[in-house]
Amino acid sequence: MSMRELAKEARVSLMTPYNLFGSKAQVLGALLESISVRVETAFDELDLRDPIDTMYALARLSVQ
Known about the structure:
Layout lengths: L2 H8 L4 H7 L2 H23 L4 H13 L1
């Protein structure tokens, strides 16, 4: 996906992704970091549940 397509999909000007991220590589890095944080948070929550709840949470996480 080009930065132009990204901007169009986000309904912002072409310069907005460049101003916020600088490059496509930095956009990808931000997305990967966001996913990593979500997965880490989900795994932290799994430690607080009983085994059945953990299985359901893992199933929900895998769908996300």
